[in-house]
Design brief:
Helix content: 10-25%
Structural class: alpha+beta
Strand order of the largest sheet: 1-8-5-10-4-3-2
Radius of gyration: 18 Å
Number of strands: 12
Order of helices and strands: HEHEEHHEHEEHEEEEEHHE
Largest sheet: 7 strands, antiparallel
């Protein structure tokens, strides 16, 4: 595994605390559309460092068998440990991230996943999907129990295979979906009719329910479109079983208590590469 890039996690976000109305708007958008965003949450330089760290981790992951998991042709997903990201603390402790997590998932929310998607040139349309089956709390109680925060590492252009999402579909039960995640291809025209493409720029962050039906689209550009993923659960949501983050002992002890209190990970003497556990059955082939 590549050497950790952040042996002492000292960065704390200097961003302002959001107004209550901003968080109320984000909460409403997540329950209505399944996605919300904060434009300019970080400086563009944050995204540039993020891209460098992703490139380093991606290069390392591709040297190991199954280090980078395929999510369709020329599209990969890699999970990493917090200290492989120089600005992990700034991300996890960002006031908007903290406030959205508290509002949607409760004060005892848990960070359970850190990884990144890399659609390379030639990545094709994914089938419409959600990232895991809908839990009972969402199907029966109309309650969201997890969020995926996405941070782009580049300015997204039309030819780079933008992310598409079908607003409001987080509430579909998925009872008829293959593996609980993949709607029938007969339903694809309906998702395409309501689909919204996203064009985030460096410094933007979004939060979404991973249950909202979505897909990556064809990347025609001669450059990748890397995106960081921070997965967060409400207590008892159970997605931590699909991930295996770890922190070195010195790194863990140096983390701010406010970050450590929400981080689900093993504390180890020696970091080993993450063993990918969150595979999404059916994303080996694309839709094109």
């Amino acid at each position: 595994m590549a050497a950790p890039t952040s042996p002492v996690p000292h960065r704390i976000s200097g961003a302002r605390e959001p107004e209550p109305a901003e968080i109320e708007d984000a909460f409403r958008a997540l329950y209505r559309d399944g996605i919300t965003a904060r434009k300019g949450a970080f400086a563009p330089e944050f995204a540039d460092r993020l891209r460098e760290d992703i490139e380093r981790a991606f290069d390392d992951a591709r040297t190991r068998p199954d280090g980078a998991v395929g999510r369709g042709p020329n599209r990969y997903y890699v999970e990493i440990h917090p200290e492989q990201l120089r600005d992990f603390v700034e991300l996890a402790d960002h006031p908007w991230v903290r406030s959205v997590c508290q509002a949607v998932l409760g004060p005892d929310y848990r960070i359970v996943e850190l990884g990144f998607d890399v659609p390379l040139e030639g990545a094709v349309n994914q089938p419409w999907h959600r990232d895991f089956p809908s839990p009972a709390a969402t199907r029966e109680e109309h309650r969201l129990t997890s969020l995926a925060f996405n941070v782009t590492a580049v300015d997204t252009a039309e030819d780079m295979g933008p992310f598409e999402i079908a607003p409001g579909t987080q509430w579909e039960t998925g009872a008829e979906f293959d593996h609980g995640m993949f709607p029938s291809r007969d339903a694809f025209p309906g998702y395409e009719a309501r689909a919204v493409r996203k064009y985030p720029r460096r410094g933007d962050i979004s939060a979404r329910s991973a249950l909202t039906i979505h897909r990556g689209t064809t990347n025609h550009a001669p450059r990748p479109r890397p995106v960081l993923v921070l997965g967060v659960d409400a207590p008892g949501a159970g997605n931590d079983a699909q991930h295996d983050m770890a922190c070195g002992r010195a790194y863990w002890q140096a983390l701010p208590e406010r970050v450590r209190a929400h981080l689900t990970c093993r504390v180890v003497d020696t970091l080993e590469p993450v063993v990918q556990q969150h595979t999404i059955e059916g994303l080996v082939m694309g839709d094109a």
